[in-house]
Design brief:
Blueprint (H helix, E strand, L loop, with lengths): L1 E4 L4 H12 L7 E4 L22 E3 L9 H12 L9 H27 L8 H21 L1 H5 L4 H16 L10 H10 L3 H4 L5
Parallel strand pairs: 1-2
Antiparallel strand pairs: 1-3
Helix pairs in contact: 1-2, 1-6, 3-4, 3-6
This protein binds benzoic acid.
């Protein structure tokens, strides 16, 4: 299998953490891809018309995207057990969606601040994206800590990828002080070998 890959993408990182946790990094060849909404560059537009990574080119079927589809596919194929059976599955999927929403908002902030031409940038729009991130982090601090303390699942992995991306691209914004429990979880979770091996670059 070939995985279209960008080392800064939190969505690619989800897939890479899953592969590390499953001991299956040798099952994929990484294909570097770079681009943005204004210039798809080397993004795999012929494989994913949305021009985004990750995209997983399979040996025996059409290319898969986005990260949630790829992670479900790899979890099933590798029998990784990162999506538990219902009813816990619904919590895992909602946490994954919440974490992906944090990553989405943070990537849009990055594009607004570094890709959009300076004359048309909107600080209000960036602030609105950050508000979305803050609401989601507040919800995790208030409601999800017992889930984060349970055995590893794809919700936790997606949250790790999102928090790692915030530290990477929004390091000047302090999300930790008002969310000390989540900050403590992240300090420990970030030390897993799968997280250390996939740090954004
Ligand atoms: C970034 O450089 O922040 C980035 C690159 C690819 C996908 C998403 C984000």
């Amino acid at each position: 299998m070939r995985l279209y890959h960008a080392p800064a993408s939190p969505f690619v990182r989800k897939v890479m953490i899953l592969l590390h946790e499953a001991g299956a990094t040798d099952r994929v060849t990484l294909v570097p891809a770079a681009g943005n909404p204004l210039d798809p560059g080397t993004m795999p537009v012929d494989r994913n018309p949305l021009g985004k990574v990750p995209a997983l080119e399979r040996d025996d079927g059409p290319t898969l995207y986005d990260s949630r589809v790829i992670c479900r596919y790899l979890d099933t194929t590798l029998d990784a057990g990162l999506y538990p059976p219902p009813p816990r599955l619904w919590d895992t999927l909602v946490l994954e969606a919440t974490a992906d929403g944090i990553s989405d908002a943070a990537v849009l902030m990055r594009y607004e601040e570094f890709v959009r031409p300076e004359a048309t940038r909107s600080p209000d729009w960036v602030a609105a994206q950050w508000s979305k991130v803050e609401r989601a982090l507040d919800a995790v601090e208030a409601r999800w800590m017992s889930h984060l303390a349970a055995p590893l699942d794809m919700g936790q992995i997606a949250l790790g990828a999102a928090l790692g991306y915030l530290d990477f691209r929004q390091a000047a914004r302090d999300w930790r002080t008002s969310r000390p429990v989540l900050a403590g979880w992240w300090a420990e979770f970030a030390q897993r070998p799968s997280l250390l091996a996939t740090a954004p670059a």
